[in-house]
Design brief:
The chain is α/β, with parallel strands linked by helices. Helices cover 34% and strands 26% of the residues. Strands 1, 2, 3, 4, 5, 6, 7, 8 and 9 form a nine-stranded mixed sheet that branches.
């Protein structure tokens, strides 16, 4: 959380993390195309065939500090293995993480490896699962030969985070996942604000 006193805004950063081609970009592009409120430009950073995207939006109905608007910045990380350093940089100062897992059975190892890597990067920035909200999205539920929810829960969701089945290309589960992480991020911010006030 960053407070910008000059602009009277509270800023939050939410990062979509997951293996390559799991649907991170699809999520953020869908949200951008359907989001009804104020929003900034969708910015694409091309990294030789892999894209990192971000945009911000401003849902003015969420008030954490009186007189301040709340702005959310959504980022994706590049998924390919050789962009490990970029993924770490994007994760810096995140207030919440959405882990997008690919439900296809042949992607299980990629899901596990990328999930482990995420915790390595979090440790690098002194972030822990106790102090940052994380939700899971099980994407591509419409494809053949997918892992069951129970298998994904057992093999990928080791810490039992809230999860949401999704078909991001059709928008299924996309906003439910986003709403869940926003709720957790805001709830945590209220708690921090109360601590600072006492």
């Amino acid at each position: 959380m960053m407070i910008d006193a000059a602009k009277k805004e509270i800023k939050f950063k939410i990062v979509y993390y997951g293996p390559g081609l799991s649907g991170k970009t699809t999520n953020i592009v869908y949200i951008y195309s359907k989001f009804p409120g104020l929003k900034g430009n969708l910015v694409t950073i091309d990294t030789k065939g892999e894209r990192t995207l971000f945009f911000d939006f401003l849902p003015i109905e969420i008030e954490i500090i009186k007189g301040y608007k709340t702005r959310f910045y959504l980022y994706t990380v590049p998924g390919q293995v050789f962009y490990k350093t970029t993924r770490r940089l994007v994760l810096k100062n995140a207030d919440g993480i959405i882990y997008v897992a690919d439900s296809q059975r042949n992607r299980l190892k990629d899901n596990i490896d990328t999930h482990k890597e995420m915790y390595e990067h979090m440790k690098y920035y002194d972030m822990s699962r106790e102090n940052i909200p994380i939700v899971m999205q099980y994407n591509k539920r419409d494809l053949p030969d997918i892992l069951t929810i129970e298998e994904l829960e057992r093999e990928v969701n080791w810490y039992h985070y809230p999860y949401f089945p999704a078909i991001a290309i059709k928008g299924v589960g996309v906003f439910k996942t986003l709403e869940a992480i926003i709720r957790e991020v805001v709830k945590r911010s209220f708690a921090k604000a109360k601590e600072l006030a006492t």
